[in-house]
Amino acid sequence: MLDFVAPLVIDNTTKIVLLSLDGLGGLARPETGRSELETARIPNLSALATDGVCGLLRHVAPGITPGSGPGHLGLFGYDPMVFQVGRGVLEALGIEFALRAGDVAARGNFCTVDRQGLITDRRAGRIATEVCVRLTDRLRDIRLPGVELFVEPVKEHRFVLVLRGPGLSGRLSETDPQAIGKPPLPVRALEPAAERTAELVNTFIREARGRIADEPAANMVLLRGFDLLPDMPRFPEVFRLRAAAIAAYPMYRGLARLVGMDVLKTGGTFKVQGHGQGR
Q1: Mean pLDDT score of the chain, rounded to an integer?
Q2: 180-206: b or e for each residue (b if 16 or more CB lie within 10 Å)?
Q3: Could you give the number of structural domains in the chain?
Q4: What ranges in the chain are assigned the alpha helix state H?
Q5: Phi first, then psi: what are they for 95, rounded to 5°?
Q6: Predicted local distance difference test score (pLDDT) of residue 278
């Protein structure tokens, strides 16, 4: 699709503002019969809708509800079925971690497990970011054979895990069962070349569990979205647009940075300065 679009691009002086209110949609409330947007007084959004262009977009395919990563790739003109990017890469780029080719990145959640090892809260009660910073400090000196390990806080219960070394693979299963009352899943290799990486990550999880087992809420970790840094077509080169992204949450900034947009600093920008930044 990008090969089809590129020859159609014409240089001009037009400026475009794409406003994405991720997750704002809602269903009608039983007591009013209206959704949140139908109920709220939104003169500015109404003015933008009146003067701008509105429409419907199918981000992936019929019947598929995408997450924020694939959804925004679709918004930017990239087919999420062709350009699949793990959440770990987006989170790492979003906090300005200097991800290198060959690094394996995963998004982590601190979670709560009971004495039987069953998950009681997948987000550890959404702990404060300050607690997340303290806990990632505990995990940074875990040592794995043959690789460098980075553990970086993101926001609240979220963190990033990065493995750096030769022969790593991002083809790994997730440890989050997406349900409470179940134990975290072991990491499995999804291809033979990922067997060693899976063993390394499972070792990290066992070590991490031992170091935070005394925490009242965030006493275990869940990992998902494993991936390597992909080689993406650059948005300015494909669409011949100078694009600037304004976003508060790191994942959106990471996605914009991945496709070659300039990410502007804002008052709502969250960035943690931690071990491994700028490497």
Answers
A1: 90
A2: eeeebeebebeeeebebbbebbbebbe
A3: 2
A4: 2-5, 36-39, 43-51, 68-75, 87-94, 129-139, 195-212, 235-239, 250-258
A5: -100, 15
A6: 38
Q: How is residue 7 written in tokens?
A: 């020859």
Sign of the dihedral defined by the CA atoms of residues 43, 45, 51, 56, in that order? negative
Range name among 54-68, 70-84, 256-270 with the lowest pLDDT average = 256-270
Query: Is the pTM value of this prediction over 0.85?
Result: no
Average pLDDT over residues 167-188: 96
Whether residue 273 lies inside any domain: the answer is no
Tokens of 211: 């170091």
Residues 62 and 123 in one domain: no
Task: Note whether 165 and 98 are same-domain residues.
Answer: yes
Task: Compute the distance between CA of residue 237 and CA of residue 234 in angstroms, rounded to an integer.
Answer: 5
Which tokens belong to 34? 């209206």
The whole-angstrom separation of Cα 138 and Cα 40 is: 44
Residue pLDDT, tens place only, 142-156 = 999 999 999 999 999
Of 29, 209, 255, residue with least CA distance to 111: 209
On whether residue 205 sits in a domain, the answer given is yes
> In the Cβ-directed half-sphere of 166, how many Cα atoms lie within 13 Å?
1
Distance of alpha carbon 93 from alpha carbon 98, whole angstroms: 7
Question: How large is the average pLDDT for residues 2-9?
Answer: 81
The answer to which of 2-11, 201-210, 225-234, 245-254 has the lowest mean pLDDT is 2-11
Residue 272 belongs to some domain of the structure: no
